[in-house]
Protein backbone atom coordinates (compact mmCIF):
# COMPACT_ATOMS: atom_id res chain seq x y z
CA UNK A 1 0.00 0.00 0.00
CA UNK A 2 2.85 2.40 0.82
CA UNK A 3 4.41 1.73 -2.59
CA UNK A 4 1.09 2.40 -4.36
CA UNK A 5 0.68 5.68 -2.47
CA UNK A 6 4.17 6.77 -3.47
CA UNK A 7 3.49 5.96 -7.13
CA UNK A 8 0.27 7.97 -7.00
CA UNK A 9 2.02 10.90 -5.35
CA UNK A 10 4.79 10.90 -7.96
CA UNK A 11 2.34 10.85 -10.85
CA UNK A 12 0.37 13.77 -9.41
CA UNK A 13 3.38 16.05 -8.94
CA UNK A 14 3.57 19.36 -10.78
CA UNK A 15 4.43 19.62 -14.47
CA UNK A 16 7.13 22.28 -14.54
CA UNK A 17 10.42 22.15 -12.72
CA UNK A 18 11.66 25.71 -12.51
CA UNK A 19 11.00 29.30 -13.48
CA UNK A 20 13.38 28.87 -16.39
CA UNK A 21 11.41 25.91 -17.66
CA UNK A 22 8.18 27.92 -17.56
CA UNK A 23 9.65 30.61 -19.75
CA UNK A 24 10.47 28.15 -22.53
CA UNK A 25 7.11 26.34 -22.57
CA UNK A 26 5.43 26.56 -25.95
CA UNK A 27 1.91 26.04 -27.25
CA UNK A 28 0.68 22.63 -26.20
CA UNK A 29 1.73 22.81 -22.54
CA UNK A 30 -0.99 22.73 -19.86
CA UNK A 31 -1.42 26.50 -19.84
CA UNK A 32 -2.39 26.47 -23.55
CA UNK A 33 -5.36 24.12 -23.14
CA UNK A 34 -8.67 25.04 -21.48
CA UNK A 35 -10.12 22.87 -18.75
CA UNK A 36 -11.98 19.87 -20.13
CA UNK A 37 -10.00 19.66 -23.38
CA UNK A 38 -8.30 16.41 -24.40
CA UNK A 39 -4.76 17.36 -23.35
CA UNK A 40 -5.85 19.02 -20.11
CA UNK A 41 -7.36 15.76 -18.83
CA UNK A 42 -6.33 12.18 -18.22
CA UNK A 43 -7.64 11.17 -21.65
CA UNK A 44 -4.13 10.93 -23.18
CA UNK A 45 -3.23 8.31 -20.56
CA UNK A 46 -6.39 6.38 -21.37
CA UNK A 47 -5.67 6.45 -25.11
CA UNK A 48 -2.08 5.33 -24.58
CA UNK A 49 -3.25 2.45 -22.38
CA UNK A 50 -5.98 1.47 -24.83
CA UNK A 51 -3.57 1.48 -27.78
CA UNK A 52 -1.16 -0.80 -25.92
CA UNK A 53 -3.96 -3.07 -24.74
CA UNK A 54 -5.40 -3.38 -28.24
CA UNK A 55 -2.00 -4.17 -29.72
CA UNK A 56 -0.78 -6.70 -27.17
CA UNK A 57 -3.91 -8.23 -25.66
CA UNK A 58 -3.57 -11.39 -27.70
CA UNK A 59 -0.24 -12.12 -25.98
CA UNK A 60 -2.25 -13.02 -22.86
CA UNK A 61 -3.19 -16.23 -24.68
CA UNK A 62 0.41 -17.09 -25.63
CA UNK A 63 2.32 -20.04 -24.18
CA UNK A 64 5.82 -20.07 -22.70
CA UNK A 65 8.73 -19.81 -25.14
CA UNK A 66 11.07 -22.18 -23.25
CA UNK A 67 13.79 -19.57 -22.97
CA UNK A 68 14.22 -19.00 -19.23
CA UNK A 69 10.44 -18.87 -18.67
CA UNK A 70 10.19 -22.66 -18.47
CA UNK A 71 12.58 -22.35 -15.54
CA UNK A 72 9.77 -20.62 -13.68
CA UNK A 73 7.82 -23.85 -13.69
CA UNK A 74 10.89 -25.85 -12.68
CA UNK A 75 11.10 -23.78 -9.49
CA UNK A 76 7.37 -23.12 -9.14
CA UNK A 77 7.17 -24.73 -5.70
CA UNK A 78 9.81 -22.26 -4.49
CA UNK A 79 8.52 -19.03 -6.05
CA UNK A 80 4.85 -19.75 -5.27
CA UNK A 81 5.31 -19.70 -1.49
CA UNK A 82 5.07 -16.33 0.22
CA UNK A 83 7.18 -17.69 3.07
CA UNK A 84 10.14 -17.87 0.67
CA UNK A 85 10.06 -14.12 0.03
CA UNK A 86 13.20 -13.40 2.15
CA UNK A 87 15.09 -16.06 0.17
CA UNK A 88 14.46 -14.13 -3.07
CA UNK A 89 16.88 -11.52 -1.74
CA UNK A 90 19.45 -14.16 -0.77
CA UNK A 91 19.73 -15.94 -4.13
CA UNK A 92 20.51 -15.03 -7.70
CA UNK A 93 17.79 -14.81 -10.37
CA UNK A 94 18.31 -18.45 -11.39
CA UNK A 95 17.84 -19.66 -7.81
CA UNK A 96 21.46 -20.51 -7.06
CA UNK A 97 21.85 -20.65 -3.28
CA UNK A 98 25.48 -19.52 -3.51
CA UNK A 99 27.11 -17.63 -6.36
CA UNK A 100 25.48 -16.90 -9.69
CA UNK A 101 25.73 -13.80 -11.85
CA UNK A 102 22.34 -12.07 -11.76
CA UNK A 103 21.12 -10.50 -8.52
CA UNK A 104 17.59 -9.43 -9.47
CA UNK A 105 15.25 -10.22 -6.58
CA UNK A 106 12.44 -7.88 -7.65
CA UNK A 107 12.05 -9.94 -10.83
CA UNK A 108 11.50 -13.04 -8.71
CA UNK A 109 9.05 -11.12 -6.50
CA UNK A 110 7.01 -10.21 -9.57
CA UNK A 111 6.92 -13.86 -10.64
CA UNK A 112 5.84 -14.85 -7.13
CA UNK A 113 2.86 -12.50 -7.36
CA UNK A 114 1.90 -14.10 -10.68
CA UNK A 115 2.29 -17.59 -9.23
CA UNK A 116 0.07 -16.72 -6.27
CA UNK A 117 -2.88 -15.61 -8.41
CA UNK A 118 -2.27 -17.41 -11.70
CA UNK A 119 -0.55 -20.65 -10.76
CA UNK A 120 1.22 -22.20 -13.73
CA UNK A 121 -1.03 -20.61 -16.32
CA UNK A 122 1.24 -18.74 -18.79
CA UNK A 123 -1.56 -16.25 -19.40
CA UNK A 124 -1.09 -14.84 -15.89
CA UNK A 125 2.57 -14.03 -16.57
CA UNK A 126 1.83 -12.56 -20.01
CA UNK A 127 -0.96 -10.44 -18.54
CA UNK A 128 1.42 -8.97 -15.96
CA UNK A 129 3.91 -8.10 -18.70
CA UNK A 130 1.16 -6.26 -20.58
CA UNK A 131 -0.07 -4.34 -17.53
CA UNK A 132 3.49 -3.31 -16.62
CA UNK A 133 4.12 -2.11 -20.18
CA UNK A 134 0.98 0.03 -20.11
CA UNK A 135 2.04 1.51 -16.76
CA UNK A 136 5.50 2.35 -18.13
CA UNK A 137 4.00 4.01 -21.21
CA UNK A 138 1.86 6.25 -19.00
CA UNK A 139 4.87 7.12 -16.85
CA UNK A 140 6.91 7.87 -19.96
CA UNK A 141 4.28 10.37 -21.13
CA UNK A 142 4.48 11.97 -17.69
CA UNK A 143 8.28 12.24 -17.88
CA UNK A 144 8.06 13.89 -21.30
CA UNK A 145 5.73 16.51 -19.85
CA UNK A 146 8.05 17.07 -16.90
CA UNK A 147 10.86 17.71 -19.39
CA UNK A 148 8.64 20.39 -20.90
CA UNK A 149 7.86 18.66 -24.16
CA UNK A 150 4.61 20.14 -25.43
CA UNK A 151 1.62 17.92 -24.83
CA UNK A 152 0.80 17.02 -28.45
CA UNK A 153 4.36 15.88 -29.31
CA UNK A 154 4.67 14.20 -25.91
CA UNK A 155 1.48 12.26 -26.64
CA UNK A 156 2.83 11.20 -30.04
CA UNK A 157 6.17 10.07 -28.63
CA UNK A 158 4.48 8.17 -25.82
CA UNK A 159 2.39 6.32 -28.41
CA UNK A 160 5.55 5.79 -30.47
CA UNK A 161 7.11 4.11 -27.45
CA UNK A 162 3.95 2.10 -26.75
CA UNK A 163 3.70 0.49 -30.19
CA UNK A 164 7.32 0.36 -31.36
CA UNK A 165 8.20 -3.12 -32.71
CA UNK A 166 11.63 -3.17 -31.06
CA UNK A 167 9.87 -3.41 -27.69
CA UNK A 168 7.69 -6.35 -28.68
CA UNK A 169 10.06 -8.92 -27.23
CA UNK A 170 9.99 -7.26 -23.81
CA UNK A 171 6.19 -7.46 -23.75
CA UNK A 172 5.49 -10.78 -25.48
CA UNK A 173 8.34 -12.80 -23.93
CA UNK A 174 7.71 -13.36 -20.20
CA UNK A 175 11.33 -12.90 -18.96
CA UNK A 176 11.46 -9.66 -20.98
CA UNK A 177 9.57 -8.10 -18.10
CA UNK A 178 12.87 -7.53 -16.31
CA UNK A 179 13.49 -4.55 -18.59
CA UNK A 180 9.88 -3.37 -18.27
CA UNK A 181 10.11 -3.57 -14.48
CA UNK A 182 13.45 -1.75 -14.59
CA UNK A 183 11.91 1.05 -16.67
CA UNK A 184 8.96 1.26 -14.28
CA UNK A 185 11.15 1.87 -11.22
CA UNK A 186 13.68 4.07 -13.07
CA UNK A 187 10.99 6.38 -14.43
CA UNK A 188 9.32 6.60 -11.01
CA UNK A 189 12.68 7.39 -9.42
CA UNK A 190 13.45 10.04 -12.04
CA UNK A 191 10.03 11.64 -11.63
CA UNK A 192 10.58 11.72 -7.85
CA UNK A 193 14.00 13.27 -8.42
CA UNK A 194 12.48 16.06 -10.53
CA UNK A 195 9.75 16.59 -7.94
CA UNK A 196 12.38 16.82 -5.20
CA UNK A 197 14.24 19.54 -7.11
CA UNK A 198 11.00 21.51 -7.22
CA UNK A 199 9.63 20.91 -3.73
CA UNK A 200 12.71 20.01 -1.64
CA UNK A 201 10.72 17.73 0.67
CA UNK A 202 11.97 14.65 2.47
CA UNK A 203 9.04 12.67 1.05
CA UNK A 204 10.14 13.31 -2.52
CA UNK A 205 13.74 12.45 -1.68
CA UNK A 206 12.67 9.25 0.08
CA UNK A 207 10.53 8.25 -2.91
CA UNK A 208 13.41 8.89 -5.30
CA UNK A 209 15.81 6.77 -3.26
CA UNK A 210 13.27 3.99 -2.63
CA UNK A 211 12.49 3.61 -6.33
CA UNK A 212 16.21 3.77 -7.12
CA UNK A 213 16.80 0.88 -4.72
CA UNK A 214 13.94 -1.13 -6.24
CA UNK A 215 15.38 -0.46 -9.70
CA UNK A 216 18.81 -1.71 -8.57
CA UNK A 217 17.18 -4.83 -7.14
CA UNK A 218 15.57 -5.35 -10.55
CA UNK A 219 18.64 -4.95 -12.76
CA UNK A 220 22.14 -3.71 -12.11
CA UNK A 221 22.08 -1.15 -14.95
CA UNK A 222 19.83 1.03 -12.78
CA UNK A 223 23.05 2.43 -11.27
CA UNK A 224 23.29 4.53 -14.44
CA UNK A 225 20.40 6.68 -13.17
CA UNK A 226 22.65 8.28 -10.56
CA UNK A 227 24.98 9.53 -13.28
CA UNK A 228 22.07 10.87 -15.33
CA UNK A 229 20.61 12.69 -12.34
CA UNK A 230 24.04 14.17 -11.63
CA UNK A 231 24.18 15.41 -15.23
CA UNK A 232 20.74 16.95 -14.80
CA UNK A 233 21.88 18.76 -11.67
CA UNK A 234 24.94 20.13 -13.41
CA UNK A 235 23.58 21.13 -16.81
CA UNK A 236 19.77 21.13 -16.94
CA UNK A 237 18.39 22.95 -13.93
CA UNK A 238 18.42 26.68 -13.28
CA UNK A 239 21.67 27.69 -11.60
CA UNK A 240 19.93 30.19 -9.33
CA UNK A 241 17.65 27.58 -7.79
CA UNK A 242 18.33 26.48 -4.22
CA UNK A 243 20.96 23.75 -4.18
CA UNK A 244 21.21 23.14 -0.45
CA UNK A 245 19.56 19.74 -0.79
CA UNK A 246 22.15 18.44 -3.22
CA UNK A 247 24.29 17.06 -0.41
CA UNK A 248 21.33 14.96 0.72
CA UNK A 249 20.95 13.61 -2.81
CA UNK A 250 24.58 12.62 -3.08
CA UNK A 251 24.55 11.07 0.37
CA UNK A 252 21.38 9.19 -0.45
CA UNK A 253 22.84 7.83 -3.69
CA UNK A 254 25.96 6.70 -1.86
CA UNK A 255 24.01 4.89 0.86
CA UNK A 256 21.58 3.19 -1.51
CA UNK A 257 24.23 2.06 -4.01
CA UNK A 258 26.59 0.92 -1.25
CA UNK A 259 23.85 -1.11 0.43
CA UNK A 260 22.89 -2.69 -2.87
CA UNK A 261 26.50 -3.53 -3.72
CA UNK A 262 27.00 -5.12 -0.30
CA UNK A 263 23.88 -7.27 -0.69
CA UNK A 264 24.86 -8.22 -4.24
CA UNK A 265 28.40 -9.17 -3.22
CA UNK A 266 27.08 -11.25 -0.32
CA UNK A 267 24.80 -13.27 -2.62
CA UNK A 268 27.05 -13.57 -5.68
CA UNK A 269 30.24 -13.83 -3.59
CA UNK A 270 31.67 -10.89 -5.54
CA UNK A 271 30.20 -7.83 -7.21
CA UNK A 272 30.46 -9.16 -10.78
CA UNK A 273 29.24 -12.68 -10.01
CA UNK A 274 30.85 -15.92 -11.11
CA UNK A 275 30.36 -15.61 -14.89
CA UNK A 276 33.57 -15.03 -16.90
CA UNK A 277 32.96 -11.40 -17.86
CA UNK A 278 35.60 -9.49 -19.81
CA UNK A 279 34.33 -5.91 -19.68
CA UNK A 280 36.75 -4.17 -22.05
CA UNK A 281 36.76 -6.98 -24.61
CA UNK A 282 32.96 -7.17 -24.55
CA UNK A 283 32.47 -3.44 -25.00
CA UNK A 284 34.98 -3.16 -27.84
CA UNK A 285 33.93 -6.34 -29.60
CA UNK A 286 30.21 -5.70 -29.33
CA UNK A 287 30.25 -1.94 -29.95
CA UNK A 288 29.08 -2.30 -33.60
CA UNK A 289 25.76 -3.55 -32.19
CA UNK A 290 25.08 0.03 -31.11
CA UNK A 291 24.44 1.01 -34.71
CA UNK A 292 22.33 -2.12 -35.19
CA UNK A 293 20.06 -1.10 -32.32
CA UNK A 294 19.71 2.36 -33.86
CA UNK A 295 18.76 0.64 -37.10
CA UNK A 296 15.99 -1.23 -35.31
CA UNK A 297 14.59 2.09 -34.07
CA UNK A 298 14.45 3.76 -37.47
CA UNK A 299 13.97 0.70 -39.68
CA UNK A 300 12.24 -2.01 -37.61
CA UNK A 301 12.11 -4.50 -40.49
CA UNK A 302 15.04 -6.67 -39.44
CA UNK A 303 13.71 -7.76 -36.08
CA UNK A 304 14.87 -11.04 -34.66
CA UNK A 305 15.17 -13.22 -31.60
CA UNK A 306 18.62 -13.82 -30.08
CA UNK A 307 20.49 -12.40 -33.05
CA UNK A 308 24.27 -12.62 -33.03
CA UNK A 309 26.40 -9.77 -34.30
CA UNK A 310 27.27 -11.28 -37.67
CA UNK A 311 23.55 -11.65 -38.48
CA UNK A 312 22.77 -7.95 -37.93
CA UNK A 313 22.83 -6.15 -41.33
CA UNK A 314 25.31 -3.29 -41.18
CA UNK A 315 23.61 -0.94 -43.60
CA UNK A 316 20.48 -0.46 -41.45
CA UNK A 317 22.66 0.70 -38.60
CA UNK A 318 24.87 2.92 -40.74
CA UNK A 319 21.82 4.56 -42.30
CA UNK A 320 20.36 5.15 -38.83
CA UNK A 321 23.58 6.75 -37.57
CA UNK A 322 23.72 9.02 -40.60
CA UNK A 323 20.04 9.94 -40.27
CA UNK A 324 20.43 10.76 -36.59
CA UNK A 325 23.36 13.06 -37.32
CA UNK A 326 21.48 14.79 -40.13
CA UNK A 327 18.37 15.37 -38.00
CA UNK A 328 20.41 16.91 -35.20
CA UNK A 329 22.31 19.14 -37.61
CA UNK A 330 19.23 20.24 -39.56
CA UNK A 331 16.97 20.90 -36.58
CA UNK A 332 16.04 24.58 -36.29
CA UNK A 333 15.60 24.68 -32.55
CA UNK A 334 17.05 22.40 -29.97
CA UNK A 335 18.15 22.47 -26.34
CA UNK A 336 21.66 21.09 -26.57
CA UNK A 337 21.82 20.00 -22.95
CA UNK A 338 18.58 18.03 -23.39
CA UNK A 339 19.96 16.45 -26.57
CA UNK A 340 23.04 15.34 -24.67
CA UNK A 341 20.89 14.05 -21.81
CA UNK A 342 18.79 11.94 -24.18
CA UNK A 343 21.88 10.59 -25.90
CA UNK A 344 23.51 9.70 -22.59
CA UNK A 345 20.33 7.99 -21.39
CA UNK A 346 20.32 5.85 -24.54
CA UNK A 347 24.03 4.99 -24.39
CA UNK A 348 24.47 4.45 -20.67
CA UNK A 349 21.46 2.17 -20.29
CA UNK A 350 22.32 0.20 -23.44
CA UNK A 351 26.09 -0.27 -23.26
CA UNK A 352 26.08 -2.43 -20.08
CA UNK A 353 24.11 -5.05 -22.01
CA UNK A 354 27.15 -5.43 -24.28
CA UNK A 355 29.10 -6.87 -21.33
CA UNK A 356 28.39 -10.55 -21.79
CA UNK A 357 29.99 -13.77 -20.64
CA UNK A 358 33.03 -14.80 -22.65
CA UNK A 359 31.87 -18.41 -22.28
CA UNK A 360 29.00 -17.89 -24.74
CA UNK A 361 28.44 -16.31 -28.15
CA UNK A 362 26.90 -12.89 -27.34
CA UNK A 363 23.41 -12.18 -28.62
CA UNK A 364 21.62 -8.86 -28.95
CA UNK A 365 18.06 -9.39 -27.82
CA UNK A 366 15.65 -6.53 -28.44
CA UNK A 367 14.24 -6.45 -24.91
CA UNK A 368 17.49 -4.73 -23.88
CA UNK A 369 16.55 -1.59 -25.83
CA UNK A 370 13.36 -1.06 -23.82
CA UNK A 371 14.65 1.59 -21.40
CA UNK A 372 17.37 3.01 -23.71
CA UNK A 373 14.70 3.79 -26.31
CA UNK A 374 13.16 6.25 -23.84
CA UNK A 375 16.38 8.26 -23.93
CA UNK A 376 16.56 8.25 -27.70
CA UNK A 377 13.01 9.57 -27.79
CA UNK A 378 14.06 12.36 -25.40
CA UNK A 379 16.60 13.27 -28.08
CA UNK A 380 14.15 13.07 -30.97
CA UNK A 381 11.57 15.13 -29.09
CA UNK A 382 14.05 18.01 -28.93
CA UNK A 383 14.42 18.21 -32.71
CA UNK A 384 12.40 20.45 -35.02
CA UNK A 385 12.82 19.92 -38.74
CA UNK A 386 10.35 22.38 -40.29
CA UNK A 387 7.79 21.53 -37.67
CA UNK A 388 7.81 17.80 -38.33
CA UNK A 389 9.02 16.64 -34.93
CA UNK A 390 6.88 19.21 -33.11
CA UNK A 391 3.78 18.11 -35.08
CA UNK A 392 3.00 21.79 -35.67
CA UNK A 393 0.84 21.26 -38.77
CA UNK A 394 -1.97 19.00 -39.88
CA UNK A 395 0.25 17.34 -42.46
CA UNK A 396 2.87 16.49 -39.85
CA UNK A 397 0.17 15.19 -37.49
CA UNK A 398 -1.30 13.00 -40.26
CA UNK A 399 2.16 11.68 -41.13
CA UNK A 400 2.70 10.91 -37.45
CA UNK A 401 -0.55 8.94 -37.34
CA UNK A 402 0.52 6.93 -40.37
CA UNK A 403 3.88 6.17 -38.77
CA UNK A 404 2.19 4.98 -35.59
CA UNK A 405 -0.19 2.72 -37.53
CA UNK A 406 2.68 1.19 -39.51
CA UNK A 407 4.69 0.57 -36.35
CA UNK A 408 1.69 -1.00 -34.64
CA UNK A 409 1.07 -3.27 -37.63
CA UNK A 410 4.67 -4.49 -37.61
CA UNK A 411 4.49 -5.09 -33.85
CA UNK A 412 1.23 -7.01 -34.16
CA UNK A 413 2.53 -9.43 -36.75
CA UNK A 414 5.94 -9.74 -35.11
CA UNK A 415 4.39 -10.64 -31.76
CA UNK A 416 2.97 -13.79 -33.36
CA UNK A 417 6.45 -15.32 -33.24
CA UNK A 418 6.16 -15.45 -29.45
CA UNK A 419 2.93 -17.47 -29.34
CA UNK A 420 4.56 -20.82 -28.50
CA UNK A 421 7.91 -22.53 -28.21
CA UNK A 422 8.12 -23.79 -31.80
CA UNK A 423 7.22 -20.40 -33.32
CA UNK A 424 9.67 -18.68 -30.99
CA UNK A 425 12.66 -20.88 -31.81
CA UNK A 426 11.86 -21.07 -35.53
CA UNK A 427 12.08 -17.29 -35.61
CA UNK A 428 15.31 -17.43 -33.58
CA UNK A 429 16.88 -19.79 -36.15
CA UNK A 430 15.63 -17.64 -39.02
CA UNK A 431 17.02 -14.53 -37.30
CA UNK A 432 20.46 -16.06 -36.77
CA UNK A 433 20.95 -19.11 -38.99
CA UNK A 434 24.58 -19.30 -37.88
CA UNK A 435 23.71 -19.73 -34.20
CA UNK A 436 24.21 -23.25 -32.85
CA UNK A 437 22.45 -22.16 -29.65
CA UNK A 438 19.24 -21.32 -31.52
CA UNK A 439 19.35 -24.56 -33.53
CA UNK A 440 19.88 -26.55 -30.35
CA UNK A 441 16.85 -25.05 -28.68
CA UNK A 442 14.63 -25.51 -31.72
CA UNK A 443 15.71 -29.15 -31.82
CA UNK A 444 14.85 -29.48 -28.13
CA UNK A 445 11.38 -28.05 -28.78
CA UNK A 446 10.78 -30.58 -31.57
CA UNK A 447 11.88 -33.32 -29.17
CA UNK A 448 9.44 -32.15 -26.51
CA UNK A 449 6.66 -32.25 -29.11
CA UNK A 450 7.62 -35.81 -30.07
CA UNK A 451 8.84 -34.80 -33.55
CA UNK A 452 12.04 -36.86 -33.42
CA UNK A 453 12.80 -36.57 -37.13
CA UNK A 454 12.93 -32.77 -37.11
CA UNK A 455 14.65 -32.80 -33.72
CA UNK A 456 17.49 -34.96 -35.08
CA UNK A 457 17.81 -32.85 -38.23
CA UNK A 458 18.07 -29.54 -36.38
CA UNK A 459 20.30 -30.84 -33.58
CA UNK A 460 22.75 -32.37 -36.04
CA UNK A 461 22.83 -29.01 -37.82
CA UNK A 462 23.65 -27.36 -34.48
CA UNK A 463 26.50 -29.82 -33.89
CA UNK A 464 27.84 -29.08 -37.39
CA UNK A 465 27.77 -25.32 -36.76
CA UNK A 466 29.58 -25.60 -33.43
CA UNK A 467 30.63 -29.05 -32.17
CA UNK A 468 31.44 -27.49 -28.80
CA UNK A 469 28.00 -25.97 -28.22
CA UNK A 470 26.73 -26.96 -24.80
CA UNK A 471 23.63 -29.18 -24.48
CA UNK A 472 23.59 -30.12 -28.20
CA UNK A 473 25.15 -33.54 -27.66
CA UNK A 474 23.03 -34.23 -24.58
CA UNK A 475 19.90 -33.49 -26.60
CA UNK A 476 21.12 -35.62 -29.50
CA UNK A 477 21.68 -38.42 -27.03
CA UNK A 478 18.01 -38.26 -26.05
CA UNK A 479 16.94 -38.47 -29.70
CA UNK A 480 19.22 -41.44 -30.39
CA UNK A 481 18.09 -43.16 -27.20
CA UNK A 482 14.42 -42.76 -28.14
CA UNK A 483 15.05 -44.04 -31.66
CA UNK A 484 16.77 -47.23 -30.46
CA UNK A 485 20.41 -46.27 -31.00
CA UNK A 486 21.97 -46.75 -27.53
CA UNK A 487 25.63 -46.80 -28.63
CA UNK A 488 25.26 -43.48 -30.46
CA UNK A 489 23.32 -42.06 -27.50
CA UNK A 490 26.09 -43.03 -25.08
CA UNK A 491 28.71 -41.44 -27.34
CA UNK A 492 26.74 -38.16 -27.43
CA UNK A 493 26.33 -38.05 -23.63
CA UNK A 494 30.05 -38.63 -23.17
CA UNK A 495 30.79 -35.84 -25.67
CA UNK A 496 28.57 -33.52 -23.65
CA UNK A 497 30.36 -34.42 -20.41
CA UNK A 498 33.72 -33.84 -22.11
CA UNK A 499 32.55 -30.34 -23.12
CA UNK A 500 30.94 -29.53 -19.77
CA UNK A 501 31.85 -31.83 -16.90
CA UNK A 502 29.22 -30.15 -14.72
CA UNK A 503 26.26 -30.82 -17.02
CA UNK A 504 24.02 -32.60 -14.52
CA UNK A 505 21.37 -33.42 -17.13
CA UNK A 506 23.90 -35.34 -19.21
CA UNK A 507 24.65 -37.55 -16.20
CA UNK A 508 20.94 -37.98 -15.55
CA UNK A 509 20.27 -39.10 -19.12
CA UNK A 510 23.36 -41.30 -19.31
CA UNK A 511 22.22 -43.01 -16.12
CA UNK A 512 18.78 -43.61 -17.63
CA UNK A 513 20.42 -45.16 -20.68
CA UNK A 514 22.50 -47.52 -18.53
CA UNK A 515 19.46 -48.40 -16.41
CA UNK A 516 17.41 -49.26 -19.51
CA UNK A 517 20.27 -51.45 -20.73
CA UNK A 518 20.33 -53.30 -17.41
CA UNK A 519 23.64 -51.76 -16.32
CA UNK A 520 22.28 -50.82 -12.90
CA UNK A 521 25.60 -50.35 -11.13
CA UNK A 522 26.83 -47.98 -13.84
CA UNK A 523 23.53 -46.09 -13.68
CA UNK A 524 23.85 -45.67 -9.92
CA UNK A 525 27.44 -44.44 -10.18
CA UNK A 526 26.54 -41.88 -12.85
CA UNK A 527 23.59 -40.58 -10.83
CA UNK A 528 25.73 -40.28 -7.72
CA UNK A 529 28.09 -38.10 -9.76
CA UNK A 530 25.13 -35.95 -10.80
CA UNK A 531 24.30 -35.35 -7.12
CA UNK A 532 27.86 -34.20 -6.46
CA UNK A 533 27.30 -31.55 -9.15
CA UNK A 534 23.75 -30.66 -8.14
CA UNK A 535 22.89 -31.71 -4.57
CA UNK A 536 19.24 -30.66 -5.08
CA UNK A 537 18.60 -32.61 -8.28
CA UNK A 538 15.05 -33.91 -7.65
CA UNK A 539 14.89 -36.33 -10.59
CA UNK A 540 18.14 -38.03 -9.59
CA UNK A 541 16.99 -38.54 -6.00
CA UNK A 542 13.77 -40.08 -7.30
CA UNK A 543 15.66 -42.38 -9.67
CA UNK A 544 18.09 -43.52 -6.99
CA UNK A 545 15.26 -44.14 -4.53
CA UNK A 546 13.34 -46.21 -7.09
CA UNK A 547 16.49 -48.10 -8.12
CA UNK A 548 17.24 -49.13 -4.55
CA UNK A 549 13.57 -49.85 -3.80
CA UNK A 550 13.50 -52.31 -6.69
CA UNK A 551 16.77 -53.80 -5.45
CA UNK A 552 15.08 -54.22 -2.05
CA UNK A 553 17.89 -52.22 -0.46
CA UNK A 554 15.87 -50.73 2.40
CA UNK A 555 18.68 -48.71 3.97
CA UNK A 556 19.62 -46.87 0.76
CA UNK A 557 16.00 -46.36 -0.22
CA UNK A 558 15.25 -44.85 3.18
CA UNK A 559 18.29 -42.58 2.90
CA UNK A 560 17.16 -41.13 -0.44
CA UNK A 561 13.58 -40.73 0.77
CA UNK A 562 14.81 -38.77 3.77
CA UNK A 563 16.88 -36.56 1.48
CA UNK A 564 13.84 -35.96 -0.74
CA UNK A 565 11.66 -35.02 2.23
CA UNK A 566 14.33 -32.67 3.57
CA UNK A 567 14.52 -30.96 0.18
CA UNK A 568 10.72 -30.79 -0.34
CA UNK A 569 10.92 -33.22 -3.29
CA UNK A 570 7.79 -35.19 -4.11
CA UNK A 571 8.04 -38.82 -2.94
CA UNK A 572 5.91 -41.40 -4.82
CA UNK A 573 3.47 -43.02 -2.33
CA UNK A 574 4.68 -46.53 -3.18
CA UNK A 575 8.11 -45.64 -1.86
CA UNK A 576 6.85 -44.29 1.45
CA UNK A 577 4.70 -47.31 2.39
CA UNK A 578 7.47 -49.70 3.47
CA UNK A 579 8.97 -47.07 5.76
CA UNK A 580 5.84 -45.65 7.40
CA UNK A 581 6.14 -45.07 11.17
CA UNK A 582 4.89 -47.85 13.45
CA UNK A 583 1.12 -47.94 13.84
CA UNK A 584 0.49 -46.56 10.34
CA UNK A 585 -0.27 -48.41 7.15
Number of helices: 30
SSE arrangement, N to C: HHHHHHHHHHHHHHHHHHHHHHHHHHHHHH
Kindly provide the radius of gyration, computed on alpha-carbon positions and rounded to a whole number of angstroms.
Answer: 27 Å
Mean pLDDT: 87
Give keywords.
585 residues; mainly alpha; 64% helix; disordered C terminus
Question: What do you see in this structure?
Answer:
The C terminus is likely disordered. α12 packs parallel to α14. This protein is mostly helical.
Report a brief summary of the structure.
The chain is mostly helical and 585 residues long.
Give the secondary structure arrangement, pairings included.
Layout: H1 2-11, H2 19-23, H3 43-56, H4 69-74, H5 76-79, H6 85-88, H7 105-118, H8 122-146, H9 151-163, H10 168-172, H11 177-199, H12 202-216, H13 224-235, H14 246-268, H15 279-286, H16 289-298, H17 314-330, H18 336-350, H19 370-381, H20 394-415, H21 421-431, H22 436-448, H23 452-465, H24 472-482, H25 486-499, H26 504-516, H27 520-533, H28 538-550, H29 554-566, H30 573-576
Amino acid sequence: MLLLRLVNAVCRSGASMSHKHKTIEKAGTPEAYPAGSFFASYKPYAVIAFAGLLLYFRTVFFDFSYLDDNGLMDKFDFISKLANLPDFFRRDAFNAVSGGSYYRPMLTVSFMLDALWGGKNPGAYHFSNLVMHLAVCGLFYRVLLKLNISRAPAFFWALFFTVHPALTQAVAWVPGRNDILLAFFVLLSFLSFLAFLEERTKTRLAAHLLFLLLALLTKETAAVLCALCAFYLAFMRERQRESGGDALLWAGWFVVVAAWLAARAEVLKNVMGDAPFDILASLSGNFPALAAYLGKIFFPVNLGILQVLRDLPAWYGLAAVGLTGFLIYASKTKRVNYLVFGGLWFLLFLLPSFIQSSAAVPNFSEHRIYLPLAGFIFLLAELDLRGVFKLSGRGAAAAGAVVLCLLAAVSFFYSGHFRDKISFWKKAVASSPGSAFNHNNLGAMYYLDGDLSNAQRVLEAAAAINPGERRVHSNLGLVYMDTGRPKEAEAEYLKEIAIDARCDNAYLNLGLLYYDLGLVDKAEAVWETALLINPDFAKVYTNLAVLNYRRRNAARTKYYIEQMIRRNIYVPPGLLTPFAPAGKK
